[in-house]
Structures are given as C-alpha cells and as structure tokens.
Amino acid sequence: MAPSLRDQQDNESVSSVNRFDPEPTVVQKTITRQEAIDQAGDLIHKIRYLDFQQVALRSRIAAWISEPVLRVLPPRLKANLHVWCWLHDRKLFYKLSKFLDEDLSEWDYTVEISNRQRDMACCDLDTDILRFYVANLKPLRKGLPEQQRRELVNKLRNGLALFADYHDEKIRTIETATQALLQQEQNSINAERNAFLAASELQSQAMLD
Known about the structure:
The chain is mainly α.
C-alpha cells in the first residue's frame, strides 16, 4: 500500500529535522593540465632524485594526485608517478592505475561544499541534543490519544528544561573563562606598565646623579 501524502510529509519533515544542516553547495569546476602540473610545485623534480628522501614525499604526493589531477596529467608524467608509487606507496599505485590510459588536457567536475560550519553558529553536542528532542515531535502528527500526547509533551518539556539548564551553565562557564583570560591579560599589561614606569624613574634618577 502506497504511503499517504500526510505520511510522506511527515517523513520529509522529520528527515529535515534530523539533518538540521543546510544543503551543500554544488560548485562546477574545471582543471587544466597546466594547473595540475602547477599544483605539484617542486614534487615533479624531487621524485626524480634518488638520493632524496622519497618516503618524506608520500603525504604531499597523496594530497596532490586527486582524481581531477590524475585525469589531466601528461601520460609520461603519470607513468613516472606510477613507478614511484609502486616503490613507495602501493595504495596510490592502485589509485593511479585507473587513469593511466586517459590523456585529457582539461576536465570538468563538481564538488560539494558543506554549509554546516558556515551557516550554523552551533554545530556540536548542543545541536545533536536539540535534534533528538525535536525529532521526538513526530508522533504528535499522527493523532495520538490525549493521554499519550500529554505524556509526550511533558517528557519533551522536561527534557528541554534540562537542556536549557545545561546550556545556561555552559554559557556561564564560557563567560567565566573569558573574564579570567581578560583579567589575566589586564594584569599582564599593568605589570608591564609598572615595570616600564619603574625603569623610567630609575633612569631619570641616574641622569640626575
């Protein structure tokens, strides 16, 4: 039996509540062969010197050869990298193997940029707690009997009251720590100023003598 429109709306609503996060931004990008080579910096030269500590390059190589980069690198350079990866990083070797036969000078691709940290001031435990409580509102849309509805509302009210107390205590702790840091900084400034005044006074007395 197909779900009713009300059930679909309910599921979509709760799904949205459980996520809480804004939709990621999809960005269209293009990378050229020259751009991929430029991103390598001095890596291309360093992998050719056998006396250089090649193992030290593993993290830089791994960060560089993303899929878009591998698609547009010149075949000869990919072949050299393939040999290097066989000797120093087998995981990258198998990754690179998938793109050896491609000879593209340009590649279009899309990336998703998360908006969570940018759009939400609070993306930590507080959000997770609120997500839990708000998601529990779902049964209220299904026409619960009055007694069950009251029990659920009271449970959520008590939970949110506890959360409010926890949040207030957290804010007070942050404010106290901030005030302590400000006071410490002010004390340091005062100490430096007093030391400067004392040194200036001693210098003035020395000049008078």
